[in-house]
Protein 1
Amino acid sequence: MERSTLNLWVGIFVLLGFFSFLMLAFKVGNLNLSSSNETYIVTAHFDNIGQLKERAPIRSAGVLVGRVKAIQFDSKQYNAEVKLAIDSQFKFPVDTSASILTSGILGEQYVSLDAGGDDKYLKNGDQIKLVQGAVVLEKLIGQFLYNKAQDTSSTKGAAK
Amino acid sequence: MTNIVSGIRIVGDRTLKIVERIGAIASFLFSILIHSAASFKRFSLTIREVYFAGVQSLIIILVSGLFVGMVLGLQGHETLQRYGSEDSVGVLVALSLVRELGPVVSALLFASRAGSAITAEIGLMKATEQLSAMEMMAVNPISRVVAPRFWGGVISLPLLALLFSAMGIIGGYLIAVVLIGVDSGSFWSQMQSAVDFEHDIVNGIIKSLVFGVAISAIATFEGYEAPPTAEGVSGATTRTVVSSSLAVLALDLVLTAFMLKGWN
Amino acid sequence: MTNLVEIANLNFGYNSRLVLKGINLTVPKGSLVAIMGLSGCGKTTLLRLMGGQLRASEGTVTVAGEKLNDLSQAELYRFRRKLGMLFQFGALFTDLSVFDNVAFQMREHTDLSETFIQDLTLLKLNAVGLRGMHHMMPSELSGGMARRVALARAIALDPQLMLYDEPFTGLDPISLGVIGQLIRKLNDTLGTTSVLVTHDVQESLKIVDYIYFVSDGVIVAQGTPDEIRGSDLPFVHQFIWGEMDGPMPFHYPAQSLKHDLELMGG
């Protein structure tokens, strides 16, 4: 085979491979050059993070604005310190509140940001003060049963 | 009693032989790396091998990828339908392909298509004294014959695995969206939110690179060490396919375990 | 006349079995020397020792002033540029054309321009009469032509020493004569020294200057072609005239025929 045809085929092969890489990266995967590069990090302390994982989405009004960068246990305050990487094109006031919610009934957990009214914005390294941890289903059910039991015992007591 | 003892002895003997072989392949790989500089200087030799290992495997990889993706689409839809989440079929197809099936199946196909050809070619060159002749012409066969074939394989396999995954996702799309009628928007968007570039795609590429090194090292080793007879070469070709397939599956287990737990 | 190859008190063995025992042999510069013997007598091993592909267990092999026992791997490769070798069946590179086969060493070892390499390659092919075949692949050649191309490839860089491993095996009488004449002609015109390992007696007696007979790892006879023809050593006589029985018996050692047959009959 002529060397030039051989080179042509290898060239086509490499280009095809490169295009499928691009397809996998941008169409199938979540690589996004414009936004994923620039983020700023803010921290938030939660009493309980439930099933929140690293790289879970951060949403505000349902729109993806960033991802959870790291989760670690704060051994001074005995709670969970969550580092939030927020896309720098989105600015939030300093009195923004963060809460951990669940998408759907059994879906994944995410961090929801609700903007406040302050005219100063959060910047890299700041801490979000207003937080609402995850709702733990067992606690909720336990509380519900407890209330129910109290209700029935009080009505029984009234009947006597 | 003696049966048990001799059984244990046979098992131990086989194990020692396997470990010995792994050692021999590792030191062969080392000498390929040492002698690679000369073959990089004349990169056209390696390009030639990319043609034989990569371009000539294109058809089988593309067709198999398409079929595997279609089957995943069908099976995934069938199963997910029971839980009412057939929109997630894209996630299932993409994750299985990018993480596992793309690298592993294309490596297995590559081992039997290109690996066996490499072994047979080098083995025949040895049997017909071409390697000896090269040595007598003061050209080291490791850097002139073995290294270009090794690097050709290492370059080709990751590209083939990417093509396999891409084809498979197209196949899954054809079945799930075009044929069954899953919503095209949620097919892609759910896929995008679930497939992570670093954790899924880059790790998949790392896997296929490791597989490429293993298969190419085994294939060139078996060819180079093949007894210079017809049976010798055919036996070496069979061994290449068997041991590189096993190596791919074993390495896949180890790599997957590390990737899921994190490298540290 | 100085000697290009000198072998002194050489012993060589695979594992513990000695293949060559106490070999002393010299090849003067510019001469064409044949090493003859039966298949498996160790003559190809002797050739490989001269090419540095094997190392002597004891004794010395000196080629072109270099003691091969002492050379490192890298020095051996450098030394081999002075050698040319023709393998038994040619050993042409099957993935390269005739032209690329002959040009192989020039491309690997020299910085010559491609146009110069082209001229040189065509000249070498012309010397073996196959200039018109340069575009063909080795698989398209007959055995005799392949052998001639391999010869052109071996002389590509004008070696000081040519080694021929069974150059006449499997050739028809005409090709055989052509190869024999080419070996002699190239040796004289290029000023090369040649060592020829063969068991083809009649053809080699016509072309060589001196002959060593090897049997069972030792040199049993040596001399010029005329001396060998006139030799009354029984082994040499049997070898040259192809007699069926002699010092090399027709029957391999075995139990008596009667014993074997009775055993078969039950």
Protein 2
Amino acid sequence: MITPTIQPILCLDGVSKQFGGLNALTDVSFSLNEGEVVGLIGPNGAGKTTLVNVVTGNLRRSSGRILFKSEDVGLQKPYQAARRGLARTFQIVQPFPAMTVLENVTAGALFGAGAGSLGDARDMAMQSLEFVGLDGLADRPAANLALAARKRLELAKSLAMNPKVLMLDEVNAGLNSSEIDGALALIRRIAERGVTVLIIEHLMKVVLSLSKRLLVLHYGQLIADGPSAEIVADERVIEAYLGAKFAARLKELNHG
Amino acid sequence: MRSGFPLYAAMVAGLLILATTPLYADNYVVRTAAIVAMYGALATSWNFIGGFTGYPSFSTAAFFGLGAYVGAICQRNGIPMGLAWAIATVTVAGFAALLGGIILRLRGHYFAIGSIAVVELCRLVVSSWSSLTGGGDGLNLPLMAWPPEQLMRFFLFVMLGILLASLIATILVDRSRLGFGLRCIHQNEDAAAMVGINTTAYKIAAYTLSAMFCATAGAAYASWTGYIDPTDSFQIVMTVKVVVMALLGGAGTILGPALGAAAFVLLEELFWANFLDWNRAILGVVIVLLIFFLPGGLLSLGVLRRLRAATGSAKAEGGK
């Protein structure tokens, strides 16, 4: 569990979000420590993307507090979140289609990281592109990239913003298994740079291989928060999400 | 990066052609040149919000008309002409910034309709506020007791000055953080906010820039004609014309809108002169054809050729 010496970088305290009469998030509280890689799982419609939208200011929380470095950021706009270092990727990739790959990433460096000049921003962008392995496609229009490359572009753009917390909303959706392995290696290297990462995923393989800690959302409520091994054995989580079959297989693996 | 030299050369050549008309042509041609310069400035202004940012604004006539009225009222109260134009520019820029904060919350078609409503609203307010604006009777401005040639030449240079100022502003914006941010907003506004662009502030800046030069042109136009009234100052037709000009030349490019304005004004003059009964219909057909077959605008013809040449040489260099 959380040791008191580590300062949480992002802390949610009783956050709720209602759409009319629908409770999308109910009293969600957790904190992320600096440099941690945490997985956020839950069935479809559990409120995972809503949670990210609330943290980055795309949606305004109905109640509760969102603390970033002990500062209440519950009312921030998306651009303010970006400048503070709360970066995210979208489930459906959001490039600037007519711009080149390099220009896309330059936008992140110029506005998100606050690069001094266009030239500096371009240098930072090039570094991000090299990091994700897209430097060879720098001059291609973003619209021409295949899905795997577009997902990498999203990552490069977020990285160029010099984020403190990076929220990855299903970056692996729609990728084949070899592409997923590449993406996993990349996310690991991002975490090694000290960026706090929150991974939202459907694929258990991905979450379990990356994060030691898991959060589980179910019908907008946080039903579990703890070490991955404990979470996948938790009765409620199994019921809500994994299904008995997977849990049984897992038990066999662990005891067999 | 765009290469700067051909751009500047084309710009200077175009301005010189317009500026030298008094040397060899009659007053009709000089007047046409002044009108080209004026519409060039209006279309170049529209480009900030419509071209760079991708917000289809139809407010041009509102800014033009308000500029005309602010300038006229100042001049009638004894403020010298140049100062009156400056006051009109600043006042209307302030008005656009305040208004932008409200209507730029709308997107796409909704924004287009909202921006048209601004023109009508301004016209109604101006024609109702008789104590200040003279209502439907309009306003007379102090006449300039100059011979017609001299007057014509003077306003040609004034309009060229406004056009030049708007072009310089365009070049500066294009190369700055602001221009880059506006292009990002055009491509994908949500993604632009997510990379840290204060989209509201950027859109307001673009809208204000698009209003400023229209106001100067409006105030200068009022001094030029010596009389303004609400229906003439706030014309929906003008608003639509300016958008068509910018699209015709190439929205989002630097010289495109001014070029489109020149082409449009010349075509319009040609059809007025030769086909009095059919001129509007012919003009309409020409516009439809151009937009169907040349959606990138006139400038895309030359740009394409240059691009092809550039990529050709790059491939040769790469040798792969």
Protein 3
Amino acid sequence: MISFLARRAILALLVLITVLTISFALTRLSGDVAVSMAGPAASQEDVETIRKAYGLDRPLPIQFANWVIGAASGDLGRSYLYHAPVAELIKARLPITLTLGLTGLCIALLTAIPLGILAAMNEGSVLDRAIMMIAVIGQAMPSFWLGLTLIIVLGLRLQWLPISGVDTWDGYILPGIVLAFSAIPALMRLTRSGMVDALASDYIRTARAKGLSRASIVLRHALRNAAMPVVAVAAVQLGFMLGGSIVIEAVFSLNGVGYLAWESIAKNDFPVVQSVVLFLSTIYIVLTLLADLLNAVLDPRLRTA
Amino acid sequence: MPEPLLEVSGLRVRFGKNVDAVRGINISVQKGETHCLVGESGCGKSVSALAVMGLLAKGATRSADRLSFGGQDLLALSERQFSKLRGDRMAMIFQEPMTSLNPAFTVGSQMAEVLQRHRGVSRGEGLERAAALLAKVGITNPGLRLGQFPHQLSGGLRQRVMIAMALMCDPELLIADEPTTALDVTVQAQILRLLMGLQAELGLAILLITHDLGVVARMAHRVSVMYAGEVVESATAEALFAAPTHPYTNGLLRCVPVPGVIKRGDPLGSIPGTVPRIAPGYAGCAFRDRCDHADASCNAHVATQQIGTDHAYRCRLSADWVQAA
């Protein structure tokens, strides 16, 4: 168990180093940063001043080393655009992105698990096929399109929910639904297949032979086993949601980390871009590690091994 | 003879539309007796047991002329009412001890919940009873075992746990479906001895399903031999081993070195072929293709013949054919 976790942690660290390198390299490859920062009207001298001021005249390995050392100590550099430390920019926007991600995850789990159970209990029936159809549609639907459709129907026509911003809590509902939609198909399939296996298992036959109630058989004995992979995948999905909320934050004008990334990419604010990439990747890596840990905690065969 | 505890008559099970797994069998089990249901793989023994317990998988349909337990008509019960009987007055243990316990819960919690469900007691009382029963089935250090998960136990221990779990509510009937098949020989003997001891102590009626005639010889008061979904011979254990009458029973007995039945030096036999799949509308004796004594009359319906009051077999041959042959 401990060696299993240690292996996972080392793997996570390697992934992190790779991400650091790639995010640094990509921002340098997208043209001369000093030129694009200085703007079209700047003279050669202005460009050189900027190059010097931001340390862009130094060799790349040194720039990289400076960045890694800075990042490790929490200093992600300064934004050209906001003239503020990147760490503070991210910190200010994080609550919105986190709330959005968790809302999306809750909606996804509350939809996917009951539907998955229902489909498994009626395996092969019309209901099962209808539910799986929803999964296919959900997987095929682009989130910006779904977002705009929901804005038009629920926001503008019916006026049930606000269409942008999060001045009130219900501002999270529409973007949360859109975000959830991308996670629902995978979670639902996993719940369904896990439940189908569990319900056909010998231990469920034993549970029935013990005369347990249907609720106890399905929700306790079967779901407990089917839920192990679902919980782990849900943690990974949360990582996807936090990182993948760029489109949704743009569509719904939410001033979160995703929106910050989008804005800084458009304006070539490279310290912000590479930091946001690093930050979101770190969250993703941590959540994946957490998923392994959760699996180990939930499955007694792993826990006591 | 007193009213049997379990009385099954005309039990039929069909899988989908095309396979008749059980074709009108009659079985009765008296209080305190062991009734063995014997036959080779695929003859419908396990399916019959599951049908009696109301545990058939989806796609299997059950019908019966009579299915009564302790004077209660099981056919009239709703699934909900039936579930109140299962685990309480009738219990079952299975062939697969490795997979029959839920891997996600401790032994204690799986045992305690039976008592919690049927007696409405607290978890603590359930665990207390569970510990007492684990000790009764010969598990040392029950306190430790209660907190363990199934994967931490050996197959023999798991089967003991299954037996103890089946006894949680003092059932009147225990259906044991090949309880020792997956275990090694020494553990087999221990489990069988345990079942016999529990029967003597608790007056338990046991319906024991097995393909092992050695087990039958040790355990059974009554035996029903099944073939292709039918009971082809039924008798007290003594009568069956003394005078096996159906050609299939004879074939089975020649295949197994049961002490006292097969003499030292006799060659062991085998029955060529396998159990046929029976589709609805099948007529005649299902064993005729594998039988040395079959003739044209075996293609038509074969009546059941009686020897005395307690021994019945389904074959065209007269009762003394074995001696004549």
